[in-house]
Specification:
The complex is a heterodimer of chains A (274) and B (322).
Chain A (H helix, E strand, L loop, with lengths): L3 H25 L1 E2 L1 H5 L2 H11 L14 E4 L5 H10 L40 H14 L6 E6 L6 H12 L5 E7 L8 H4 L5 H7 L3 E6 L3 H13 L5 E6 L18 E2 L2 H12 L1
Helix pairs in contact in A: 1-3, 1-4, 1-10, 3-4, 3-9, 5-6
Chain B lengths: L11 H15 L3 E5 L3 H4 L14 E3 L4 H13 L3 E7 H7 L1 H10 L5 E5 L17 H5 L5 E4 L4 H13 L3 E6 L20 E4 L4 E5 L3 H14 L4 E5 L2 E3 L3 H11 L2 E8 L4 H12 L4 E6 L9 H7 L4 H17 L1
Helix pairs in contact in B: 1-7, 3-5, 8-12, 9-10
Classes of the chains: A alpha/beta (274), B alpha/beta (322).
Chain lengths: 274, 322
């Protein structure tokens, strides 16, 4: 259990990640707001508490890895990385500008701290499983974290990777499902209902936990539990809200990719600061 | 000079499995991934899978994940070779090769076996005439087609040390041996196998031996045909193509692949932009494969030495009309 003070610090960090994510999209005038906002609390716990990394040496051999398979949430990850010193804060004004090092979707070759290039949905978990497998063979201590979206889970390749990870007993792999209930076109339940992720993963012999994805303590406890659990791969299903914390996006249908005016951004940031 | 072109006693699958297991024993970072077609190329080595823990891995029938896993393993420092039949690598895992592989600058060697008509009795579903076409526009991907057992073994050793994405279009059956064991190969450089002044036949894979047979027939007719083994399809050895075009004034390409976006297309691109000479192409017209033995399929899809002879004569004729 984290102390009350530590929880407050991590909540503050999550708020800062949200503010810096809105800042990036404001500069360009649009962005993938919904799915970025829903993972900010997780990113706070990962970069603020759980992950082992060296901002001055992003390729450090002993680091933990994060594969954000829902690559369109890149701006939220960039915010966390900049706040932790992987690159200067003013890079955050360059999102999607010509020649930028911060493109819409995560790109390992462009951004320090981005471990794997993603963007074509459904591929990140396989790559994460490959990294986890290689580390396991070498008996290395690294933990491999991966985030997939609920809509993204409709891609069949994920389930190939789920079977592979179980077969190879990848206990060093911790997957988060960002179950924010929406995909680009509509509610996930209306397009291709995923029902219970927990039941699905249990039937594939994964270690399963379910948490409120906006609760710092629940997230942190679940990750600690997963790290110390058996050889099964671990999944933490996060009940989240798409657009969480961004006043003009939260709880609005079709907030996957939206326009962001300067006034809207300013208003949302002011509300977050309160 | 009468020459015979006999098929080797050694299957390419055996050369691949012997070489790759030898490499894995020498270098623990090299891994070989299969999607339940291990027995088709690794043969009995798959029964010894426990001797290569974490190195020889059967992922199950899931090519997309297998390619993704390989890309992840390469990010963590491993050197993965990934095998399936050519259509299941090039078509099924196409976007994984692009995004997780090329775009991510991964280090993975993709081995697609039974290219073109070599799928024989597996027929149209397994007979890729379009694998090179499906991959040729991927930046940073090198495409090679080892011509015989000597080349395959030597290139596999080279590939261990070459970083990047490679597609190896690889026969499993025994093919005609063209090289002596001392021969050396450089990826990106074609091999001039026979000198000639009237026309150049630029070939790859099994069509190289057919081209040499064609050159023998042409010689009897008083035509001097040069033969080039263009085992690297991408990047193409542009210099050699231009040199041959300049020196012989006519070109025939021969490939066990679709006419669209394979070796013939690549050669035409270079010549059209730099030195337009008459070109005739041997390749599969816009159609699907079917079951049959190799002799039947060669005739069915016009991939014989006789077909090459006709195209060479046509190219030379067009040259004289200029």
């Amino acid at each position: 259990m984290l102390t009350e003070k530590r929880v407050e610090e991590l909540e503050k960090f999550a708020t800062d990640i949200r503010i810096q994510t809105i800042r990036q999209m404001k500069t360009r005038g649009f962005g993938h707001m919904g799915g970025a906002m829903s993972i900010c609390d997780l990113l706070s716990v990962l970069y603020g508490e759980q992950m082992k990394y060296d901002a001055d040496n992003p390729e450090w051999e002993e680091r933990d890895w994060l594969i954000c398979s829902k690559g369109h949430a890149g701006p939220a990850v960039y915010a966390a990385l900049a706040l932790k010193g992987f690159f200067p804060m003013d890079w955050l004004d360059t999102l999607n500008q010509p020649g930028t090092r911060l493109p819409s979707h995560c790109d390992h070759s462009k951004t320090p701290g981005i471990d794997v290039t993603t963007g074509s949905l459904g591929q990140g978990l396989s790559v994460a499983a490959g990294i986890a497998f290689a580390k396991k063979i070498e008996q290395k201590e690294n933990t491999i974290f991966c985030i997939i979206g609920d809509g993204e889970s409709q891609e069949g390749q994920n389930w190939e990777a789920v079977m592979f990870a179980a077969q190879q007993k990848l206990g060093n792999l911790i997957l988060f499902v960002d179950d924010n209930k929406q995909q680009l076109d509509n509610m996930t339940s209306k397009i291709c209902n995923m029902d219970s992720f927990a039941e699905k993963f249990r039937s594939f012999h994964w270690d399963v936990q379910e948490v409120d994805g906006h609760n710092i303590n629940e997230l942190n406890t679940a990750i600690t539990t997963a790290r110390n659990n058996d050889e099964r791969p671990h999944v933490i299903v996060m009940n989240t809200i798409k657009g969480k914390g961004c006043s003009f996006a939260e709880n609005i249908l079709k907030n996957h990719h939206i326009n962001v005016s300067a006034e809207q951004a300013e208003d949302a940031v002011n509300k977050l600061k309160r | 000079m009468e020459k015979t072109y006999t098929v080797s006693e050694r299957k390419m699958a055996g050369v691949y499995s012997d070489t790759i297991t030898k490499i894995m024993r020498e270098n623990k970072n090299v891994v070989e991934l299969e999607a339940d077609l291990g027995g088709c190329i690794m043969g009995s080595k798959m029964d010894e899978i426990d001797q290569y823990p974490g190195q020889l891995v059967n992922c199950g029938i899931q090519e997309a994940n297998m390619v993704g896993v390989a890309c992840g393993m390469s990010a963590a420092g491993k050197i993965p070779f990934v095998h399936s039949f050519a259509p299941f690598i090039s078509r099924r895992a196409n976007d994984q090769i692009f995004i997780s592989g090329c775009y991510s600058h991964a280090n993975v060697k993709l081995v697609g076996s039974d290219p073109g008509i070599m799928a024989a009795y597996n027929g149209g579903t397994h007979m890729p005439f379009e694998d090179v076409a499906a991959l040729r526009a991927f930046p940073e991907l090198t495409i090679i087609e080892p011509t015989d057992e000597v080349m395959l073994e030597k290139l596999l050793y080279q590939l261990v040390d070459l970083k990047g994405m490679y597609y190896i279009r690889c026969a499993r059956k025994a093919v005609v041996r063209l090289y002596d064991s001392q021969e050396e190969f450089e990826i990106g450089k074609g091999k001039e196998l026979r000198e000639g002044t009237d026309v150049t036949i630029i070939a790859s894979g099994i069509m190289t031996a057919e081209s040499l047979k064609a050159a023998d027939v042409l010689a009897e007719k008083g035509i001097s045909a040069r033969v080039v083994d263009m085992f690297t399809i991408k990047p193409l050895d542009k210099e050699l193509v231009l040199k041959c075009a300049e020196e012989t004034g006519a070109v025939v390409t021969a490939e066990n692949h679709s006419m669209y976006n394979g070796l013939g297309s690549a050669v035409c691109e270079v010549l059209a932009e730099n030195l337009p000479v008459p070109v005739e192409r041997i390749g599969i017209e816009d159609e699907f494969g079917e079951v049959g033995d190799m002799e039947y399929l060669k005739k069915r899809f016009h991939l014989t030495a006789e077909d090459i002879v006709k195209k060479a004569e046509k190219a030379i004729e067009r040259k004289s009309k200029k």
